[in-house]
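> forwarded from #structure-qc
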């Protein structure tokens, strides 16, 4: 049977997230045609450890691709390209010969390598490698997690040195699986989160590999964010379709928000919270606790850089209210519960479950609920949880503004939590600038689709993509200055209460 003559005009974006994997079919106007989604298990073998099963993630990826194609009523002939976006920093190590992982994925939230990080920081402090990598030393980034697997799986280190093993963040894992082992690559945005890449050369760095004890033989090739990496293998529903875009989830969301130029920014509210400000072709090294990272690189063009403020706990605080406290049954119920009270009753939650990320970078912090009185009820807790997300975002927003010549005048937002309109009002109140939600809030998947579509010529350039961005709704700050100042002062005091909690002799 001859292949149909029609020109493919859709893109399949695979979004391999922390809690689930999605496949979304976009049309050539950047609109969602269909989607498939499946959650995977969160494995907590010990306090502070977080793992995923890479085989389950790959099964889910295949499943959701099938779901999305069926739902759209299309076949591979309608798909111009595949884009991949992913939870960043998460580490998977697999056997090149069998394609089998040698250990569960160690997830970005996992803090098991704190001792290794402390040992490295003892000589030169947490900013020891910051000039080269843009990153502070933290368990968050991939390098110490790779070494942990090589040190704890029998024979792994020797096999890695011999070139028998492959490391990848989930983008590389999905790319490898999709191409049936033909391509072992990652993009610059993902590579920039490992602590192993030099931002100046955009290549793996021998000094860093040595310091973190990661053999170069295990590392994927670093490619741009938008180019054809390879084609889906013959056993795939999308066989022969080019895989043409890869961006780490936060960079993808920035791209999907059309924040292509210096000074443009976005905040994503997912499991964690992530503010990104595009700094253009300029590498800005932060003095205020932000990360310097690659925003994107299109083919051979000059890379664009960004400043990023990462907040470890955002949506996962809502999950905690649901799963650990049981005061809500579903995530959206947090909004209804928070609306049963007029304000937070002066209760503050600082969700420093695994320490505090930007701008504090305090691994010794642990969570606290402060300001409790006999008056406080679960409505106040729900409200304090949403405010905690808003105030953590304020902290990174202020840090970003302190680095920029022109302060941010409005914040584009996206991610699973932006369905929560109370949160967005609280956010505008905390920031004192408008908060803007686009029509398509699946910006992560959209960004990956854009990168893939650009590489295969479905879209001409970023100007064409910018024209596709459309506003859904905006929230203006609505609180008076005194109330705002009171809330911020209380929040900062609450943060103080969480610091210095974990002592080095804590088991
Ligand atoms: P990720 O990409 O990190 O997996 P998502 O962007 O899918 O995350 O967002 C999911 C997170 O958003 C979950 O932590 C969930 O608890 C939270 N969430 C989803 N809907 C709501 C809501 N209506 N209100 C508050 N939180 C929500």
């Amino acid at each position: 049977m001859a292949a149909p003559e029609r020109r493919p005009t859709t893109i399949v974006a695979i979004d391999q997230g922390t809690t689930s994997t999605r496949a979304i079919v976009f049309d050539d106007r950047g609109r969602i045609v269909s989607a498939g989604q499946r959650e995977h298990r969160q494995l907590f073998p010990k306090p502070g450890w977080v793992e995923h099963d890479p085989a389950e993630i790959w099964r889910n990826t295949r499943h959701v691709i099938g779901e999305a194609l069926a739902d759209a009523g299309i076949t591979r002939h309608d798909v111009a390209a595949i884009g991949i976006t992913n939870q960043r920093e998460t580490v998977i190590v697999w056997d090149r010969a069998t394609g089998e992982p040698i250990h569960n994925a160690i997830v970005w939230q996992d803090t098991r390598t704190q001792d290794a990080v402390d040992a490295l920081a003892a000589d030169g402090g947490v900013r020891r490698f910051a000039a080269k990598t843009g990153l502070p030393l933290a368990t968050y980034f991939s390098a110490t997690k790779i070494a942990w697997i090589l040190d704890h799986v029998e024979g792994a280190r020797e096999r890695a040195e011999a070139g028998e093993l492959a490391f990848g963040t989930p983008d590389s894992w999905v790319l490898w699986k999709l191409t049936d082992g033909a391509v072992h690559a990652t993009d610059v945005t993902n590579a920039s989160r490992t602590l192993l890449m030099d931002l100046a050369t955009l290549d793996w760095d021998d000094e860093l590999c040595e310091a973190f004890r990661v053999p170069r033989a295990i590392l994927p090739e670093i490619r741009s964010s938008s180019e054809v990496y390879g084609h889906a293998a013959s056993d795939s529903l999308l066989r022969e379709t080019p895989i043409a875009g890869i961006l780490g989830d936060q960079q993808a969301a920035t791209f999907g928000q059309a924040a292509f130029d210096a000074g443009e920014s976005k905040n994503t509210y997912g499991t964690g919270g992530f503010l990104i400000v595009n700094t253009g072709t300029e590498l800005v090294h932060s003095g205020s606790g932000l990360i310097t990272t690659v925003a994107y690189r299109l083919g051979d063009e000059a890379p664009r850089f960004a400043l990023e403020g990462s907040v470890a706990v955002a949506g996962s605080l809502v999950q905690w209210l649901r799963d650990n406290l049981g005061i809500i049954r579903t995530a959206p119920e947090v909004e209804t519960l928070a609306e049963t009270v007029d304000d937070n009753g002066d209760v503050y939650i600082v969700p420093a479950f695994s320490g505090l990320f930007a701008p504090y970078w305090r691994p010794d912090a642990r969570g606290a609920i402060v300001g409790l009185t006999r008056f406080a009820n679960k409505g106040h807790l729900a409200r304090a949880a949403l405010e905690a997300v808003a105030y953590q975002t304020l902290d990174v927003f202020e840090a970003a503004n302190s680095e920029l010549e022109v302060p941010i005048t409005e914040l584009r937002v996206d991610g699973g939590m932006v369905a929560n309109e109370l949160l967005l009002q609280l956010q505008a109140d905390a920031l004192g600038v408008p908060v803007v939600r686009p029509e398509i809030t699946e910006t992560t998947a959209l960004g990956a689709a854009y990168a893939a579509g650009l590489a295969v010529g479905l879209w001409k350039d970023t100007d064409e993509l910018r024209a596709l961005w459309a506003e859904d709704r905006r929230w203006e700050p609505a609180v008076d200055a005194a109330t705002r100042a009171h809330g911020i002062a209380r929040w900062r005091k609450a943060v103080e209460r969480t610091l210095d909690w974990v002592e080095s002799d804590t088991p």
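QC bot note: The longest helix spans residues 378-403. The longest strand covers residues 32-39.
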